[in-house]
Design brief:
This protein has 587 residues and is an all-alpha fold. 72% of the residues lie in helices and 2% in strands. This is Tetratricopeptide repeat protein 29.
């Protein structure tokens, strides 16, 4: 029995039971243990159970294969190559996952309407499915099919799709094994629908551009980002007409920006685009810009600089001044993050000259962005007054061009300058202004950084409870955005909150996982320093020394003299406390 519809002429008991739904990972694990025993549960078994998406039949068949002696590692390897075909212990529908799925795909309801297979093929390429609301009409027009709602009802009736999400934003989705089956057995239908699906997403991206402040764009694009990456990866593995390549790279530019905006940092799509564009210097250089942007968000400045230097050189060779200026701006910002301020200033000044050369009559956003980067550089040098003057002008320019994200960033850095001045009241005003602008712009990262600054200000004011609340909110945002660097900054301050509240155990629980991360940045060094302080307070001097020395090495690697000074001061305090304790305890 498959799907929702029960066979007629059967005296069903009342009330009717709902169709069997998918199982949770824990439920799947229990079935495997019951059939194949506890010792079959390991890393490879868990991977298999995650891959088969909770389908009861698939779980039972996997458990049967394990019970009958196949090793889970071998089963996972075969799944990676043959997918649904391996979930097979016989030739009937109850012993073969493929046969079970095929019963639905080839059912009379499906064969009566050939368009059902077209929609099934299109949905099989979308890991996150498709929204059930008004945008279904756009998919219908894109695929050239009629009555998409009745087709979806058929697919739902024969259990090939299901509805996920909330009542406000439901989505039509296929379980992963069914997607794999369709990709294998509906090759012709996929070939027919794939170009239309590509055009649908390309048109969506080009219409939205970078305008994530628009709530309609935000609601249309953000749920589709993973789908778009899947479609674009398949696209860049196929043959592409030269006339179409530029349009696809332009759409990839928008997709990369939207991806970083929501914290989705997959490089796979751009890696394929780099290969596809290697014969076209302009498009290839743009792809290097895109991948550099992802490295920047991950704070991998070494790889970012490598790609940005290549991009800038390519653009210079083909006299693309504006693109070269953009690459140099990002390069300058990267050097600044590596504390190479002179190199950063050279790159930013060259970028500004190229922008000015192209436009001497009016202020443009790229020029304002360079001025903002220079202001941050002056702040890093300790030239507070120069940075403040720059930022006041930058903020006015962002207001003129109605750039809310730029206004958020500039206002936030003004708050940082007043923190450095020690003017905490003024700093709090700017941080709150930045927070309100970020909310208006639907700019989650800006909300996080504003809350982070407010937490820092409250710490300076000894308002520990307020600091704790602001920093906890910031940490939640940065976790949702997968912003590791900002998580490290916030966790460092939260550690201080706990230590100052004599909650040493809570501080250790929070800090240790971040201290153990393989994150090679100065931000990790500050977390290690706070851990060293924590263990000094708790009298664990061996642990304190270990973490402080690790922090010192990182600061030395990045030539962070201020960070080195802080660590050395903590080491000195630790040795003094250790010696005092030794004298107090006596021989």
């Amino acid at each position: 029995m498959r799907g929702e519809q029960r066979p007629s002429k059967v005296a069903w008991s009342k009330p009717l039971l709902i169709p069997l739904s998918t199982l949770s990972l824990e439920g799947a694990r229990k079935i495997v243990v019951n059939i194949a025993k506890e010792n079959t549960i390991n890393e490879f078994t868990i991977r298999l159970l995650e891959a088969i998406d909770g389908i009861p039949l698939a779980i039972t068949l996997v458990a049967t294969l394990l019970r009958d002696g196949e090793d889970s590692a071998s089963l996972w390897t075969r799944w990676s190559m043959d997918s649904t075909q391996i979930i097979n212990v016989g030739d009937d529908r109850q012993s073969s996952l493929d046969r079970s799925i095929a019963l639905s795909v080839n059912s009379s309801r499906m064969t009566k309407n050939p368009e059902t297979r077209l929609l099934l093929a299109a949905l099989s390429l979308l890991p996150d499915g498709f929204p059930k609301g008004d945008t279904l009409e756009s998919l219908q027009n894109c695929l050239g099919i009629s009555s998409i709602h009745s087709i979806i009802q058929i697919l739902h009736t024969v259990a090939l799709v299901h509805v996920i999400g909330t009542d406000e934003s439901p989505r039509i989705q296929m379980l992963f094994p069914i997607r794999l089956f369709c990709q294998h057995f509906l090759a012709q239908e996929i070939a027919d629908t794939f170009p239309k699906t590509v055009n649908h997403y390309v048109d969506l991206l080009i219409a939205a551009e970078y305008n994530w402040e628009n709530s309609v764009n935000y609601q249309k694009i953000t749920p589709e980002v993973r789908n778009m990456h899947t479609i674009f990866q398949k696209l860049f593995l196929a043959e592409i007409q030269e006339d179409d390549l530029e349009k696809f790279i332009k759409a990839l530019d928008y997709l990369t920006n939207w991806s970083t905006y929501i914290g989705y940092y997959s490089k796979d799509t751009i890696q394929l685009a780099l290969i596809k564009t290697r014969h076209n210097s302009f498009l290839h250089a743009n792809c290097r810009l895109f991948i550099a942007m992802l490295y920047l968000w991950e704070a991998d400045y070494i790889h970012a600089i490598e790609h940005l230097e290549e991009a800038a050189n390519f653009f210079q060779e083909i006299s693309e001044d504006l693109s070269q200026a953009h690459a140099l701006r990002l390069l300058g910002e990267s050097f600044c993050m590596m504390s190479e301020l002179d190199k950063g200033e050279d790159a930013l000044e060259t970028s500004l000259k190229l922008y000015t050369k192209k436009n001497r009559t009016q202020v443009t956003q790229p020029q304002v962005d360079v001025h903002f980067a220079l202001a941050e550089l002056y702040l890093a040098r300790g030239q507070l007054l120069k940075a403040e003057i720059y930022l006041i002008n930058v903020l006015e320019d962002y207001k003129k061009i109605q750039d809310l994200i730029g206004q958020t960033n500039a206002t936030g850095v003004l708050a940082q300058i007043h923190i450095s001045y020690g003017n905490l009241i003024k700093a709090k005003e700017f941080a709150n202004q930045a927070l309100e602008i970020a909310k208006k712009a639907n700019y989650a990262f800006g909300e996080g950084t504003s809350l982070q600054r407010l937490g820092k200000i409250y710490l300076r004011m000894d308002r520990i409870t307020d600091a704790h609340q602001a920093l906890e909110k910031a940490l939640l945002i940065f976790k949702s955005q997968k912003q590791l660097i900002n998580q490290l900054l916030v966790v460092d301050m939260l550690g201080e909150v706990y230590i100052r509240s004599d909650q040493l155990s809570a501080a250790e629980t929070l800090l240790e996982p971040y201290g153990q991360m393989d994150s090679d940045t100065t931000h990790s060094a500050y977390v290690l320093t706070t851990l060293g302080w924590l263990y000094t307070c708790g009298g664990h001097f061996d642990k304190a020394e270990h973490h402080l020395n690790a922090a010192l090495q990182l600061h030395q690697k990045f030539n962070d003299q201020w960070g080195q000074a802080i660590v050395l001061a903590h080491l000195g305090i630790m040795y003094l406390v250790e010696r005092r304790n030794a004298h107090t305890l006596g021989p």
